[in-house]
Specification:
The structure holds 2 protein chains of 2 kinds. Chain A is mostly helical. Chain A has 17 helices and 3 strands. Chain A has a single domain, classed as Cytochrome C Oxidase, Chain A (Up-down Bundle), CATH 1.20.210. Helices cover 67% and strands 1% of the residues of chain A. In chain A, helix 5 packs antiparallel against helix 6, helix 8 runs parallel beside helix 9 and helix 11 runs parallel beside helix 15. Chain A is globular. Chain B is of the alpha+beta class. Chain B is built from 2 helices and 12 strands. Chain B has a 7-stranded mixed beta sheet with strand order 2-3-6-12-11-8-9, with helices on one face. In chain B, strands 1-10-7-4-5 form a 5-stranded mixed beta sheet, covered by helices on one side. Classes of the chains: A mainly alpha, B alpha+beta. At the A-B interface, helix 2, helix 6, helix 7, helix 8 and helix 9 of A face helix 1, strand 8, strand 9, strand 10 and strand 11 of B. Strand 3 of chain A pairs antiparallel with strand 10 of chain B. The structure holds protoporphyrin IX containing FE and copper (II) ion (2 copies). The site of one copper (II) ion has 7 residues of chain B, from loops. Protoporphyrin IX containing FE binds next to helix 1, helix 2, helix 13 and helix 16 of chain A.
């Protein structure tokens, strides 16, 4: 295989300064390094803030505790959505984009000044949004559906944040151009970079939809526009809201591949298949905003079917392909590493003690089983009526964006800290358990919110008992149980989250320095000198473990899909 | 490796693993099946959300709901209107156009329907967006101001049913409920 040989690299004549990573051999440029650092740190800080808000929300929805009063509950819930879904995720994604371009390609970051401007705009936007929410006059949830109106600062803050993010995406594209023109790599871009390119292309589309809808809404909040159509808003807003989830998926799938490569030496089974699967995300998601509009008036069934099926579920197919090729490439690599006994020795003897690996694999499994399956069911035209706007919906997306994306990003952080910050992970004994704690917590809240939603519990709702309601109604006792279990698993997730923040912050501030000769990692990377295979499936024709895993996945998928049709067929009749 | 350029410059000429190919075929066929099943349900299923929708000014919709409630108000033996929680109970005949008004923070009025009879239920909002969540049946539909959504609904069970608002609609969101009673 071709590796980048720093000694043979051409002289660029540009005043960029590089160092060579002693663990990976990657060439890392100083500007790229500092910008990855600041974006990652901002991400983690917003995760800390937003995660704390998530805990407060979950403790309020635990009926026996009902921690906050109604006004604070809705306020904190608005803050939770914005801080975690927008700020944590997008700051981290920018760090990932810079990593996947500059670091992986061994190039300098294009236009570092603009990258700084982007970062500053994003920070200003994120801080301003928190200010607007905490003032108390923007309790509209992060979706801010009109005619409910937030203060002008709320919309303005999101616009500023989005402009910053868009600039950062252009810096990423610029870096690709720089890498190409300065010949820092040989042949095609690596798969991880390819995945990042997918994410970035989707990001441009997403941020454009965001601008199209948020700018008029901002003008409306200033009184310059008299009316925003509530249905039109939802359609365009979800053009941003849904596609941005596809950015997350592309980014975390790229991370799955990256961690597989760095920790066990995995290679894609075939570049062609994995790249095509990424491409499907770009080609087939634009209209998927429709699955947020299934229970709205005024949209025809044809429009809903064509759009929810993502042109025949081709984007889902992309994810299903990664769902095979990621574990498949790990199985193939582990078999090459000598773990060949039975169907599963490759998995049982995998480096489960390395939080980068365990976080990545848990993310893969839970994203598929919890987030993926529930997402397809929720996005089916008729089935949507069963759970639209119930707490099943947050259950589903905590499976995708928390158990999936957030856990994958946490896992990646265990590599970013040693490789970019050059500090070793502190508390290795605890760090080993962190992905399991957070993963079990996140998986639990997803499942129990889904369970409660199946029993009809409403999302974004302060009072399950409906004490002051216009007309009394009682939810079944099982719903109370589900919400209490949700609270318990929220505490577990919060413990895992706090542990993550502490480990990361303490490692950055006081971890063993790795920029010295002879430094060793607490969680070692795969030894690359053992590379032999030409491509991932080379020489390993059988992947029995992966076949069994995807077989189980498919059986669960089909079963759960039909269970929901059965449930639907028992409802009152409507047409 | 996934973080280095493909070792084979002509990577697109590499063979595809049989397992990958098999899985791609399965995923594609399953996607096709799910696609056609949605269409099929419009013919074989009895739960398909109507898309019949009219634009209407919220004030005008409110008038229609009030006229409806007056016309079919339920009366007791003395001819006095029946109320529950201070809200009139309305008893429309089978097949009638039935109006529900979502507003801050109630679903108005209370309906009394007959089991296994069909009604044309009109849904719209007087102010913000609301969520019509019929419980424990679990039918969930969004309600917008300015759009009158008409659904032909046939209750198949009798008893008391709650309508819970499941779209955030401000500070009183968790107090917003309504009621439908179904009699045999
Ligand atoms: C300790 C971790 C977390 C806990 C305990 C938690 C818990 C919750 C709960 C209970 C809800 C409220 C559901 C409702 O009443 O409608 C919620 C909403 C939400 N959560 Fe989390 N969450 C956590 C982390 C995250 C993360 C990391 C993300 C994103 C990456 C996230 C994204 C969201 C979003 C977007 C909402 C919806 C807000 C809305 O309805 O406007 N959460 N969360
Ligand atoms: Cu409401
Ligand atoms: Cu409401």
């Amino acid at each position: 295989m071709t590796t980048i040989d720093p000694a043979a690299a051409p002289d660029y004549g540009v005043s960029a300064s590089y160092r060579t990573c002693r663990f990976t051999g990657l060439r890392i440029e100083a500007n790229a390094e500092i910008l990855i650092k600041v974006n990652a740190v901002a991400a983690v800080l917003f995760l800390a803030l937003g995660g704390l808000m998530g805990l407060l929300v979950a403790l309020t929805r635990w009926p026996a505790i009902q921690l906050l009063d109604a006004e604070w509950f809705y306020l904190i819930l608005t803050g939770h959505g914005a801080n975690v879904l927008l700020f944590w995720i997008i700051f981290f994604e920018i760090a990932v984009l810079y990593f996947a371009s500059a670091v992986i390609l061994g190039a300098r970051l294009a236009t570092p000044k603009i990258a700084w401007l982007a970062f500053i705009l994003m920070v200003v936007g994120a801080v301003m949004a928190n200010y607007a929410v905490l003032r108390g006059d923007s309790t509209v949830m992060f979706t801010s559906y009109p005619p409910m109106m937030a203060s002008q600062w709320f919309y303005l803050s999101l616009i500023i944040f989005a402009v910053g993010a868009l600039l950062a995406v252009f810096v990423f594209f610029g870096t690709l151009v720089v890498a190409k023109s300065e010949n820092t790599y040989d042949g095609s871009v690596p798969l991880v970079t390819f995945g990042a390119i997918t994410a970035a292309i989707i990001a441009v589309f997403t941020l454009a939809s965001g601008a199209i809808i948020l700018i008029p809404t901002w003008l409306w909040s200033l009184g310059l526009i008299s009316n925003i159509d509530s249905l039109m808003y939802k359609v365009v807003w979800w053009g941003m809201g849904h596609s941005s989830q596809q950015i997350n998926v592309s980014a975390h799938v790229a991370i799955w591949y990256a961690i597989g490569a760095m920790v066990v030496g995995a290679k894609p089974l075939s570049e062609k298949v994995s790249r095509t699967a990424f491409l499907m995300y770009i080609l087939f998601l634009q209209l998927a905003s429709a699955h947020h509009i299934l229970a709205e008036p005024g949209m025809s069934s044809t429009w809903k079917i064509v759009n929810t099926s993502y042109m025949m579920y081709l984007a889902v197919m992309g994810s299903m392909i990664h769902g095979l090729t990621v574990p498949g490439s790990i199985e193939a690599a582990q078999r090459r590493n000598g773990f060949t006994r039975g169907a599963f020795e490759w998995l049982t003897k995998a480096p489960w003690g390395n939080p980068a690996f365990s976080g990545m694999f848990l993310s893969l499994v839970m994203f598929g089983f919890i987030g993926g399956i529930s997402g397809v069911v929720l996005g089916t035209e008729q089935l949507n009526v069963l759970m639209h706007n119930t707490i099943y919906v947050p259950g589903h997306f905590h499976g995708t964006v928390v158990a999936g994306t957030t856990l994958a990003f946490m896992a990646m952080t265990y590599l970013v800290v040693p490789l970019i910050f050059q500090r070793d992970i502190v508390w290795p004994g605890l760090a080993k358990w962190q992905p399991f704690l957070f993963g079990i917590g996140a998986g639990g809240i997803s499942l129990f919110m889904m369970g409660a939603g199946t029993l009809g519990v409403s999302r974004r709702h302060w009072d399950l008992a409906l004490t002051d309601a216009a007309h009394a109604f009682e939810y079944p006792a099982a719903a109370y149980l589900m919400m209490a279990l949700n609270g318990i698993f929220a505490v577990i997730a919060a413990v895992g989250g706090i542990l993550f923040i502490l480990i990361v912050v303490l490692s950055i501030l006081g971890g063993t320095r790795l920029d010295r000769a002879g430094a060793r990692l607490n969680f070692p990377l795969h030894d690359r000198s053992r590379e032999v295979a030409e491509y991932g499936s080379h020489g390993t024709l059988k992947l029995p473990g992966t076949i069994i895993l995807v077989g189980i996945f498919f059986a669960c998928f089909v079963l759960y899909y039909f269970v929901n049709w059965k449930y639907l067929s028992e409802l009152w009749l409507f047409r | 490796m996934a973080i280095t350029p493909p070792s084979n410059r002509l990577w697109w000429k590499e063979p595809i693993h049989a397992i990958e190919l098999g899985w791609i075929v399965i995923a594609f066929l399953w996607g096709l099946f799910m696609f056609f099943f949605m269409i099929a349900w419009h013919f074989i299923g009895e739960q398909n959300l109507s898309s019949e929708t009219y634009k209407i000014r919220p004030e005008r919709y409110q008038e229609k709901v009030e006229a409806f409630a007056d016309e079919f108000a339920a009366k007791d033996d003395q001819g006095n209107p029946i109320e529950e929680d201070g809200v009139p109970v309305v008893r429309p005949p089978a097949g009638a156009d039935v109006y529900i008004l979502a507003r801050l923070w109630e679903f108005w009025p209370i309906l009394e329907l007959k089991r296994n009879e069909s009604y044309r239920i009109h849904l719209s909002s007087a102010d913000w967006q609301h969520g019509f969540s019929l419980q424990p049946t679990n039918i969930n539909i969004s309600v917008h101001p300015g759009y009158e959504h008409v659904i032909t609904l046939t209750p198949t069970e009798s008893g008391e049913f709650g309508i819970i608002c499941n779209e955030f609609c401000g500070l009183g969101h968790h107090t917003m409920t309504g009621r439908i009673r179904v009699v045999d």
